[in-house]
């Protein structure tokens, strides 16, 4: 499968954090969340998913099952209702707070999403 070399676009909204998600994130991180917290995805992250983890492009076939269209479509559901969640702390390289969300998919695999809270009250 061909790889995408570059993208140039702004982040796109894929949904909002629900109240339960905001409460859980605040409880584990001790960080405040605004009433409206948008979840966005950067085109560069979609490129990374496509190039390294999607269908025939999975780079670690011995340890990972490639992501499907359904897995990508369900990103906001994984963030809003994960099976596991962890606050990974402040990431100096991105200058933002980093969270990990994991949810078991319908085929029994674990889908992991890393998200960064930015200063604009958005999750990326």
Walk me through what this model shows.
This protein has helices at residues 19-29, 43-53, 69-73, 75-80; strands at 12-16, 38-41, 84-91, 96-104, 110-117, 122-123. The chain is of the alpha+beta class and 124 residues long. The strands form 2 sheets. It has a 3-stranded mixed beta sheet with strand order 1-2-6. The longest helix has 11 residues, at 19-29. The two termini are 26 Å apart.
Which properties best describe this structure?
alpha+beta; 3-stranded antiparallel sheet
Tell me briefly what this model is:
The chain is built from four helices and six strands. The protein is α+β, with helices and mostly antiparallel strands and 124 residues long. Strand 3 (84-91) and strand 4 form a beta hairpin.
Number of strands: 6
Q: How large, in whole angstroms, is the Cα Rg?
A: 15 Å
Give the N-to-C terminal Cα separation. Answer: 26 Å
The main sheet orders its strands as 1-2-6
> How many helix segments?
4
The geometry reads as globular
Describe the largest sheet.
3 strands, mixed
Instruction: Bin the helical content.
Output: 25-40%
Average pLDDT metric: 82
Strand-and-helix sequence, N→C? EHEHHHEEEE
Share of β-strand residues: 25-35%
Helix vs. strand class: alpha+beta
Any low-confidence stretches, pLDDT <50, length ≥5?
A: none
């Amino acid at each position: 499968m061909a790889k995408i070399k570059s993208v140039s676009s702004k982040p796109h909204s894929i949904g909002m954090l629900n109240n339960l998600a905001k409460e859980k994130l605040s409880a584990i991180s001790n960080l405040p969340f605004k009433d409206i917290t948008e979840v966005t995805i950067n085109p560069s992250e979609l490129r990374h998913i496509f190039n390294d983890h999607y269908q025939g492009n999975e780079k670690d076939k011995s340890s990972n099952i490639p992501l499907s269209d359904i897995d990508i479509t369900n990103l906001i559901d994984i963030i809003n209702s994960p099976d596991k969640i962890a606050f990974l702390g402040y990431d100096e390289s991105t200058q933002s707070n980093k969270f990990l969300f994991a949810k078991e998919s319908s085929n029994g695999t674990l889908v992991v999403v890393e998200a960064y809270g930015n200063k604009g009250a958005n999750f990326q």
